[in-house]
Write a structure and sequence with these properties.
Layout: H1 3-62, H2 67-73
């Protein structure tokens, strides 16, 4: 058997192994990036919600509201 025949299948097998590991790691990295992005979006959404709630409470404190009219409408 020629030396070329001995090395080509070994190189192809190694290449397949490296490509397979690369694909599995890319999926793992994509999952990690998704988790980090999701957490950042959640934290940002909570901050915006808390700010809006605080602004709404401040407006309610500045602009008095007549609760008796609301009760009469119900």
């Amino acid at each position: 058997m020629s030396p070329l025949r001995k090395t080509v299948p070994g190189k192809i097998g190694g290449l397949v192994l490296i490509l397979g590991l690369g694909l599995s790691q890319s999926g793992c990295i994509a999952t990690a990036v998704g988790v980090v992005a999701g957490t950042a979006i959640g934290i940002t959404g909570k901050a915006v919600g808390m700010t809006a709630k605080g602004a709404g409470m401040a407006v309610g404190a500045v602009l008095p509201h007549d609760h008796k009219k609301d009760e009469a409408r119900r």
